[in-house]
Amino acid sequence: MSLCRLLSHQAFDQLIARLNALGYRCIGPRVQDGHLVYSPLARFDELPRGVRQTQVPGAVRLHATDGPRAFAWANDDQCLKPFLFAPEEPLWAFEKDADGIWRSRDIRPAPEPMAIFGVRACDLAALALQDRHFRSDPWYQARRQQLFLVAVHCTHPASTCFCASTGDGPQAQRGYDLALYETDAGFLLETGSPRGEAAVAPLELPKAAPERIDEAQQEVAEAARHQQRQLPPADALRQLQDKASHPAWADIASHCLSCGNCTSVCPSCFCYDETDSGSLDGRNATRARQWGSCFAPEHGRMAGLDVRTTVAQRYRQWLTHKLASWQDQYDRPGCTGCGRCISWCPAGIDLVAAVAALASPHE
Amino acid sequence: MNECQLDRPVTARVQARIQESGSIFTLRLALPTDFAFVPGQFNELYLPGVGAVPISIVRAEGRLVDHSIRAVGRTTLALSALKAGDSLLLRGPFGQGWPLTALTGKNLMILTGGLGCAPVHALILELLARRGDFGRISLIQGVRHADDLIWRQTYEAWSSRGDVEVHLAADNSSPDWPWHHGRVTTLIDLTGLPQADTRVILCGPEVMMDHAIRHLLDTGYRAGHIWLSMERNMHCASGQCGHCQMGPLFVCKDGPVFNLPAIQPYLFREGI
Question: Is the Cβ pair A307, B271 closer than 8 Å?
Fold first, then answer.
């Protein structure tokens, strides 16, 4: 059992101040328009205290209670992805010089150090996946190096959550600078990196009693046991590659709107499109990238060949890549069990149910 | 080679523009520095404000690089309008090229269709430069219409060398077409190459490659002796943007040239 320190609500504010003093802009989940959105965070009491969350296929709803906790919900709507892999960003500027010759210039972000509070285990695991995919991407890496992560072990999974079955949660396992257990009275704090330790050392937080740590860990373990959905193990998911002609694809496609919500909220989806925009006088242009989606008709379109013309093919591409061929690319499935694709699907399509349907025998 | 290359595009000047056929043109580009590549690799060409396209490298010498392009989409139509002195931008080279080492000492069948002749052009130049290192070399190029054949004089020059067999075929041709009528697949048997000792280089439209591979495998060629070049919608050319995935493969960096067994499970399957 690692060393745990007590972090009272008052000390939480000191931690924010300390991180500010170290140059970090602090970000935490706050309620905006009925949703949990990462926003600038100055004080503990700005966090969503008493807020509970219901996630079911096709819906995410918040409820106010007078409970004392700030993290008594499963996950926010955004995950970490937009902070690192920007939804839209310029890559290069093209300009005509005095002789009318096109020249290029790098456009690189200059991100400021950022500390994010309330990171979930599922999203830390997805971050590790994106870290691998974008390991040589200068734009991603510039932001990644400035990130300080404060995880909160999850005690209130939603009905859509299945991180326990993917092995990624609800306990944050690695990749954080600090991790918190939340209790009614405050937090227990663990450090996960030398940087995290250096950040909290001056706060001289008291050591937590072993029985408090035990209780907090029990609560997270209980949360794992209460998860209603389970994804089959990685080896079983590999078999999706042999299910290309299963009739369930067409059944799912008859509901799927091909809207791309699932790929937008997925913390590991990495596809992007590059596009050009030019000035009216034709002397300047920007090459930018935007999040792409394998549900978009353009995703596989070339001159003379449209790789995936039907919604069934696109859904099959998404699910088969995410759960099966991802394993060949990065040694594990690309799903960390956050459940967002289920709750954010306007048709309520359930990834776990889809996998079960595809496991059934067919001709 | 770096695994991920997201360096900014460099300026390229159009030194010459050659109209090869009704819709195919070649841009000879001058780069700021000498250009090194492996035959079979490709570049990304950027026309600011319009778009970018992945295009195979037809040849390169010193700072000059040739790309042969069919004007068919927004970006290639705009590229087609360029003339000598104009500029564009270029990133590359990208991807895995043809396996020169595995070809050494073997008979070679180079089987192409349509503009599939472009990604093998640099390979053919390399083979001819080291002609003694290879056995028989049989070039088969097929086009839909006789008018689609490009590089007619080049094929004639190769044919007249005496150490390269050239077979050309057109699905539709006029009486003055001096070569074969019909599909390229019918020419495979005509070469009389010994299956076990021949390596096959394949590039063309997917339907043509599908038929060719079936025929090759049916007639005793081994899958491991066949290499093919794939075309996909590549944006980043660095295995990141995800557009070119076939199963777990990123065509841009794991290909575009694949040994057949590596890509066979994902090949010519609808929607993959």
Answer: yes
- Three-state SS string over chain B comes to CCCCCCCCCEEEEEEEEEECCCCEEEEEEECCCCCCCCCCCEEEEEECCCEEEEEECCEEECCEEEEEEECCCHHHHHHHCCCCCCEEEEEEEECECCCHHHHCCCEEEEEEEHHHHHHHHHHHHHHHHCHHHCCCEEEEEEEEEHHHCCCHHHHHHHHHCCCCEEEEEEEECCCCCCCEECCHHHHCHHHCCCHHHEEEEEECCHHHHHHHHHHHHHCCCCHHHEEEECCCCCCCCCCCCCCCEECCEEHHHHCEEEEHHHHHHHCCCCCC
Give the residue from B86, B243, B253 with the most A CB atoms within 10 Å of its CB, the best one to mutate.
B243
Contact pairs from chain A to chain B, CB under 8 Å: 131
Express each pLDDT in A294-320 by its tens digit: 999 999 888 778 899 999 999 999 999
Q: How far apart are CA A29 and CA A37, in angstroms?
A: 5
At B12, the amino acid letter reads A
Q: By the CB < 8 Å criterion, does B144 face chain A?
A: no
Q: What is the pLDDT of residues A7-41, one digit of tens each?
A: 999 999 999 999 999 999 999 999 999 999 999 99
Which of B106, B139, B54, B52 has its CA nearest to residue B221?
Answer: B106
Task: Provide ipTM, 2 decimals.
Answer: 0.94
Chain A partners of B79 at a C-beta cutoff of 8 Å? none
Evaluate if pTM is beyond 0.90.
yes
For Cα atoms B10, A131, A315, give the angle at the middle one, nearest 5 degrees. 90
A279–chain B Cβ distance below 8 A for any pair: yes
A290 touches chain B (CB under 8 A): no
